[in-house]
Every structure is written in C-alpha cells, then in structure tokens.
Specification:
It comes from Seriola dumerili. The protein has ten helices and two strands. By secondary structure, the protein is mainly α. It folds into two domains: about 120 residues, Methane Monooxygenase Hydroxylase, Chain G, domain 1, CATH 1.20.58; about 80 residues, Translin, domain 2 (Methane Monooxygenase Hydroxylase, Chain G, domain 1).
Length: about 290
C-alpha cells in the first residue's frame, strides 16, 4: 500500500500544516479582536451613519408637524371670505404660524453645524407648506407677494445654552445663542407656486359670497406671478417646471371667472355665480395652457 504524501495531505485537508493554521488564527484574531484598527474604523463609520439616520428621521417628523399645522392655517384663512370680522381669523392664523415657526426652530437646532443639503429632502415639504401659508396670509392683508427676505427675517430664534461647566453642584450660567434658518430659493418658489391654487379657491368662494372685486384683483396678481415664473423658464429647479402647469390652470380658471363676471355678471344672480363657476371650471381643457 502506498503511503500518503504528507505535503499533499496538508494541502488538501489543511491539517498538520502549521503555517496555514497560524494564518487562519491570525485572520480569526483580526476579525474578533476589538482593538483591531479595521474594526475600530468601521465602528466609527457605524456610529456616524446611525447618528445621521436618526437626525434625518427626526427632521422628517418635525417637517410632518410643520406641514399639518401649515395646512390647518390655510384652511382657516379660507374663512375670511365668509366671516363678518376677518381680522379675528387673521390674528388666529398669526398664532398658528408662530407655533409653526417654533417647529422650524427645532429644525434649525438639528441642523446646527450640519450641511443643510444632506438633510434638505427631509424637511423641504414642510418648509414649502409654511411658505404657502405665510404668503397666503400676507396676500390677504397686503394684497402683495411676500419676499424671501421677509420670510427669512422671521426665522431667527434665540436659544439658551449652558456655558462654562464647573461642576454638577454649581449653577451653570446661561448664554443666549442666535439660530437662523434660511429658506432656500427653490423652496420659496415651490411654495409660491402652490399659493396660486389657494388663490384660485379664494376667487371662487369670494364670488359665491357676492364679492365681485376680489376675482379681478386675483387675476392681475396671478398674471404677475405667472410672468415671473415664465422668466425662470427651464433654468430653475425641475419641480418648478412641473408646478408651472398647475399654475397656468389656476390662472385660467380665475380669468374664466372674471370673463363670466364681466360678460354675464348682470344676468346671473349673485347667489348662483359660484355654481356657474364650479360647472365652468370642469369644462376647461386641462391641457390648455395660458398664453
């Protein structure tokens, strides 16, 4: 009987091969040794990613709260066309928007020392809804469009911060820190584009309440917004070009209402104007743009 070649047996089974066993032991030690520099580096990466993901989720939750409260403010502002004292509604809307700004202050705290573009997708829906709400309130009061600078001027927050810790038993002095949140131009444009839909609804409800002056004011204002977006063209953000079609639809409905008021306003009773406009808006071709 032929004897087994020990070198061949070592290559096949790995047994009796001291060098290979030693290498395998070193690999096992490198994979389980907590002091290994590779393991230490990946633990740092894991901590950084977990911290980033947790912050992202917190920003998503805050943005959701901002969106909900901003929508409630918009629904409240639509009551100005049907209440005897609109100023009460506007004051209540101011209180709600103050609460929304406090939520945005929490976003500013989360973004302290961070790159805003890494987390922009987490909070942009809420910021757009806030821009829509505050611009709607500003238009009702001043009949003009609020600027980006005016919006950012209201997003300055004072936060108390402990400074110079000397001991747990000693009182820590408090230092005031100023936090600012800057709405990006793209979020501002997207919020203004959504505003046009609310102005179109305000036009229809105003006519239903017998107000025939507001539709003509809204028509002129929406035409100016449309002209401004036309200057941007395809050079702006992709989302702006998508919402431009909706803006044109809103402008078309308001202009159609103004046309009906001008041509047939004397023929239709005021209490029936809203029903006439509601039926006419369904007949507008959704693919037809405003030239």
């Amino acid at each position: 009987m032929k004897k087994k070649n020990p070198q061949f047996f070592c290559l096949v089974s790995g047994e009796g091969c001291p060098r290979k066993n030693a290498d395998t032991g070193q690999d096992r030690d490198a994979s389980t040794n907590p002091s290994s520099p590779v393991i230490a580096a990946f633990k740092v990466f894991q901590q950084e990613l977990d911290t980033k993901h947790d912050k992202y989720e917190r920003l998503v939750k805050i943005s959701r709260d901002v969106t909900i409260e901003s929508k409630r403010t918009i629904f409240l502002l639509h009551r100005v066309t049907s209440v005897p004292d609109p100023e009460d509604v506007l004051n209540e809307a101011d209180v709600k928007l103050d609460g929304v700004r406090q939520k945005i202050g929490q976003i500013a705290e989360e973004l302290r020392g961070e790159d805003i573009h890494q987390f922009h997708r987490a909070f942009t829906p809420g910021i757009q809804e806030y821009v829509e709400a505050i611009s709607f309130l500003h238009y009702i009061r001043h009949r003009s469009l609020i600027s980006l600078e005016e919006i950012n001027a209201r997003l300055v927050f004072m936060r108390a911060e402990k400074v110079g810790a000397m001991g747990a038993a000693e009182a820590l002095p408090l230092g005031a820190q100023v936090l600012t949140f800057h709405v990006t131009p793209s979020d501002y444009l997207l919020g203004v584009a959504d505003l046009t839909g609310e102005l179109m609804r305000m036009c229809i409800s105003s006519v239903g309440n017998g107000d025939i002056d507001t539709p003509f004011q809204l028509s002129q204002f929406l035409r100016q917004i449309h002209d401004g977006f036309s200057y941007i063209g395809n050079t702006g953000p992709y989302e702006v070009s998508k919402k431009l079609h909706t803006l044109r639809q809103s402008l078309g409905k308001v202009e159609d209402a103004c046309y009906t008021l001008r041509v047939r306003g004397s023929e239709i009773p005021k209490h029936m104007l809203a029903d006439v406009f509601s039926s006419r808006t369904t007949l507008i071709d959704p693919e037809e743009g405003v030239v």
